[in-house]
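Submission checklist for the structure archive. All mandatory fields must be present; incomplete records are returned to the submitter.

[x] Identifier: mannosyl-oligosaccharide 1,3-1,6-alpha-mannosidase
[x] Organism: Paramormyrops kingsleyae
[x] Residue count: 1085
[x] Sequence attached
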Amino acid sequence: MKLSRQFTVFGSAIFCVVVFSLYLMLDHLQLDHSKNPSNNGQLSILQEKIDHLERLLAENNEIISNIRDSIINLSKSVKDGRGGLEAGNQSRATMPGAVLTPPLVLPVQPEDCQFAARSYSKSAEGVQMLEVYDLLAFDNPDGGVWKQGFDITYEGHEWDQEPLQVFVVPHSHNDPGWLKTFDDYYRDQTQHILNNMVVKLHEDVRRKMLWSEISYFSKWWENIDVQKRDAVRSLIERGQLEIATGGWVMPDEANAHYFGIIDQLLEGHQWLEKNLGVKPRSGWAVDPFGHSPTMAYLLKRAGLSNMLIQRVHYSVKKHFAAQKTLEFFWRQNWDPDSSTDILCHMMPFYSYDIPHTCGPDPKICCQFDFKRLPGGRISCPWRVPPQAITDDNVQERALMLLDQYRKKSQLFRTKVVLAPLGDDFRYTEASEWDQQFQNYQKLFDYMNSHPELHVQARFGTISDFFAALRVTADVDPLTSSSPLLPVVSGDFFTYADRDDHYWSGYFTSRPFYKRLDRLLESYLRAAEILYSFALSSLKKHDRLNDFPSVENYKLLTEARRNMGLFQHHDAIAGTGKDWVVIDYGTRLFHSILNLKHIMVNSAHWLVLKNKGEYSHQPSVPFLQMVTIGSKRNTLNAIVLKCVPVCLRVLVVYNPTEQERLTVVTVYVNTPQVRVQTAAGHAVTAQVSAVWEEPTQASSEAYQRLQSKEGGVKQEVRLAFVWYGTTSNRDKSGAYLFLPDGEAKEYSPKRPPVIRVTRGAIFSEVTTVFEHVTHSLRLNNIQGVEGQSVEISNTVDIRGEFNREIAMRITSDLNSSDRFFTDLNGYQIQPRRMMAKLPLQANFYPMTTTSYIQDEHLRLTLLTAQSLGVASLKNGQLEVIMDRRLMQDDNRGLGQGVQDNKITANTFRLLLERRSSSDAREQVRPSSFPSLLSHISSMFLNHPVIPMAVGLSYGHLHTAPYRPLRSSLPCDIHLVNLRTIQAGEGPGPSEEAALILHRRGFDCTFASRNTGLLCATTWGKVSAINHYFICELFSLSPSSLKICLLTVMLSFSLFLSISSICISLSICYLSIISVFYCSCPIEQQA
Ligand SMILES: [Zn+2]
């Protein structure tokens, strides 16, 4: 037995920002009765309000009845004399000191429920992906030369009236890390591509090039001289070079959280604006392994009009080709009109390489990849080499290529055809530029000089192509609609490129790094917000020069870029070489340390009571975040040491826009600990041992949870299962999941060790198996975090051979074949388990949330890291937690996944009673989490951040810093408050970007005892303007220019990111100043 000398204090700290104003608000809304349970007069006011609402919203019966139920329950509890403090699933601990009591009934405005409750109406020619999946047989017949398609024919006279327009778009796909690290690729390939580009595009104004990764472009830019920069600017001005998408990377669309996607897009777009004055118009995503509508939405919000996608299931591509729906307006599932529509081109064939882009026959198209001319380093696998174009063969070669273009155009509704011309890291050598551009020019010249061919072929950028498409398809620029093009809603997961090769493995591959990324994202957001406030406050006090603002901004920029780099589709996906993974991991870890540095620096200024005492001393920091390695997932738990007796001051930073009752964990070196608030009130604390090794053994089973939700006992069973891999030649690897049938139950050789912890704040059962240390924790607090069970699994499969371990949750819910997973933490996509698909096809990405439900209950699994999830049986949810695979899966990586680490996975399991459900819901293509689920997920992903005041600073006084007067409305999330870089130099400007997200939520859940400390207010913050005024704004309007009206207009991503705001820009632009804040810091002694 080994018991560490460390102990843990779990203080239940209370972050009441301004309790008073919150209550004012509640009084105003007339819904708070926990405060005054015997007041029947207020109940009658409530009744009046309900009557009024009924008149207003006669059509919205379910919501009204929901509220009425709450009122009836409330009346009962008042009569029973029970009042507000009703027990949840556990008895509540009483907490001395300032106790913030959540309202008994969540004050939700019925109008705010309408978005999710709205009935779904599909447009006449709308394509819904869930319905497409119903239609398709998912057979895989041989299609001839176009193996996964069909034979394409044409008459030959189709173009007599309107010629075929061909746009050949040269591109080079540069992965920011895959087989080589980012820096190695840059040194060996990318810099040469870009250097040659400047020379070779200038040789002929008809030549074009597309570039998309700003991570590479900006690195190159730093290394080139003024003349070259001017040359690049002129290429852009002349339309020869187009920057597509303009993100830092081409992000993974399955695992990346929308915070990360937005941030890397901002970083890229900001760079472009500052250095080139360029705004991207079209998106270009040829390589992410499946496509998410979140990306479509964010690109649209970032001001792009068009986008291109490539890796879509081959059966879906074939169906879309047959229906001629490969060009469409991509609309969000939840969009009632066309406001989210973005024009999208889906590439029809197998790959984005040249053999698969000129037309259906790769054997022919390969002959038009002039890098493969005989004598070169690569050749055509179809064994017919390209021929250099000469006067003798030009006719024959042009007609051969034109035949492919014509066939390709048969899959589309207009006479505009796109033919990308490129591949991974193409155009490195000057000779390759000559080979491609000279030979193609000869072909174009021939085609264009023969009017009887009815073709106009040329080099183009992707926006040249879309511009022609828009004209031909008669796209209305105002409404983004076309009489010719359909509307498509839904997503393109799970991707299969051939046979039963589904790319569901990468939803989990390298989970350690997926978790590390999420941690970095939460630190980045927290540091951004704190830094923005500190800068503003320092300026107000005229102390900016005493603060390392530029040095910290450089670190912040580096962290943004490291996080942005990791959103790349081979990075967060876990599909890079081992040493590339280490390179990414080092960057992530390095930036986590730097962000802590920024947070303690910023918090130092903000919490100091007497600003006159401020002095920045890097060698003796005022605040510290010293952590210890721990097997539990407590990377942000800090160490407070006392020898022998002392008083330590703890500053706790709540980085969310919600007040919260939460548990704060701190490591101490003595069990003799008392915790007090700054005012001297005792805070309930629980001291627990930190175990380094398991001790007592027991053979009893543990994996059983019971919940008494709504008076009904609901049993939820938790188990672990193993997947192996098939005995066929093709086996599971970093990308692919190819299991050997259904999972087998985990049966450990030794009985597990079980540890039980009980206390005033939490109770926990930890079960130690050979491969997983599994903890279930119930927090005994009144806040949101007391509403769900925390699950923590520390997985270690380093000794295994071709195995994957999953957590399976089995319940009595009658969910049938339906389940729900989130897309990028941004929206929910309904799913169906389909028996006609192989097992691996039924796994989907889960960034933050998945759930199953029946008429009465919903069981939600919230996650703090992206993983693959499925619901293979009625009532089940199953998450793959780690994979160890000994071989390559033939997608170019050239290795298996054997660099497994001990990985902490953290989840929360939430069981909610539904007050109503209807049959329409079964066909509705959208679904929404409850408010409790939204905020539980936010708290899971954004834990409070404790910092310790250094021992030598015990004499300095601290004061809470509260930029918000109360919580923001429950449905509004502050995505980021991000200081913008100055026009010149690497330091900060006086502008910051405020990004808000109004979240759609489902009101058909119990609104009693949710633990939430917020309300909803019709999505209008102006309605509660007078309840909280941002200190910074009101005290000093000139301190930090209030939020970027100018930037926002020129860069629409800054507009609040809203799933549901109906009159978005107007209502939110008017309240910018109020939203300009969010980081209550509460201190404790
Ligand atoms: Zn790639």
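[x] Structure attached
Curator remark: The chain has a mean pLDDT of 82. Residues 173, 175, 287, 569-570 surround zinc ion (CB under 6 Å).
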